[in-house]
Amino acid sequence: MVHAIEFRDVTKTFKGAGYSAVDHVSFTVEEGEFITILGSSGCGKTTLLKMINRLYEPDDGKVLLSGTDISSVDVVSLRRRIGYVIQQIGLFPHLTVGENIATLPKLLKWEKEKTAARVDELLIMAGLAPDEFRNRYPSQLSGGQQQRVGLARALAADPGIMLLDEPFGAIDSITRTKLQDELLALHGGMKKTFLFVTHDIEEALKLGTRVMIMNGGKVIQYDTPEQIIRNPADAFVRSLVEAARAKEQFWERFV
Amino acid sequence: MRNLVILRLCGYNKTVSDSMWKGCVAMYQQIAEYFQTSSERWFSMLAGHIGLSAGALLPAIVIAVPAGFLCVRYARLNRPVTALFGTLRIIPSLAVLLLMLPVLGTGALPAMAALVLLAIPPILANTIAGLNGVPDFMLETAVSLGMTQEQVWWKIRFPLALPLIFAGVKTAAVEIIASATLAARIGAGGLGDLIFTGIGLFRTDLLLIGGGSVAVLSLLAGLLFGLLEKMCIRYKTI
Hints:
Number of helices of chain B: 10
Number of domains of chain B: 1
Oligomer: heterodimer
Strand order of the largest sheet of chain A: 6-7-8-3-9-10
Number of helices of chain A: 11
Mean pLDDT of chain B: 86
CATH class of the largest domain in chain A: Alpha Beta
Distance between the termini of chain A: 49 Å
CATH topology of the largest domain in chain A: Rossmann fold
Helix content of chain B: over 70%
Radius of gyration of chain A: 19 Å
CATH topology of chain B: MetI-like fold
Low-confidence stretches of chain A: none
Largest sheet of chain B: none
Number of strands of chain A: 10
Largest sheet of chain A: 6 strands, mixed
Strand content of chain B: under 5%
């Protein structure tokens, strides 16, 4: 069986650090899954994500995409097949919304009409009226709108894998809930594999078909949201679930 | 009466003020006369000044921007290169001009060389600051979209550094225009001729015309670059 993503005993230690950011991690992800990676800051979840599009190279072990060792393929063409969205969004301020979304189609030398049509299609999908937003600059958008554009840009060339590193971390909670629902609908509508890093347990349980919980560079539990709530693997996971429950009880007091 | 006493106490003197007024009128007449009789000469000096300044600014850009790129690309170069041009800048412009004499002789060429040295540091410093000012996460996004290193430089880093590079060029242009005045000392021409003639002949009118022209030219250059900046960098102004 070929997995969409496979980690084989992957280790990454940063220079000068006394511990491994990612410590002998192995797991597989099937095509079309929505995996959320949950952990506190410094647990290695971002490092793990960045090893998939080779922003970081593992010190040891292998990362395979659809059965191919990614260290053996050209890094630029690999990245063009993977969408990447980060918390800071990283829209290019000197380019319009349309030009930002068209970045990868332009690099791939698509025809102008095809690129323009794709930009409009993505803007509609992101819930932004093309005529209104195409020629705006990022500085003229709200944070939520900017992240919609960031998502559209990452989806431009129809990548098979989407890597999302706390994409909604800096967005207010009302907009965040809306964007989460839209992201779920988006994922349901296409056969793409999503990896979504977050430190918010509710977000992780809500979005993930499976949730990977990391601590100290290791994968502690990798299971469906239901299994994680019912059978926490260790004290760390239990404390996470309890923290979420405590928050819920806070609200129940007002019912 | 009381007011007059206060004015006297402040040093006001009717005869002095009258003579000052007469002096001003005379000065205005002299300046008007200069432009009536020698406007052609003034224009040629102005053209010489602009030519000298532009002739120094262009090579300075051509040297400083790539040097700034190299300093950012190869971080090891940053300190020695910045220190070198920084030291060259500390030497007074006039001294640089005079030091150039034995090497390049008199005329426009040594003057330009000195002005180029003067103009490099602001452009270099701003190029480095501009290129380094692009945040890491933006470079990471560019790379993660599948840009090659070369594409990141051309499509992201340089365009984003442009406003600061422009500001550096503007500073350099204004400095060049002011210092090009000294170049007349070594026979390079320009509006400095007028000023030095004015000093030599105790002709305040010539001093005023020369100095005023240089000042207006500096201001205009500042305005022009400001306008260019606004036109090129629309996203900053909206």
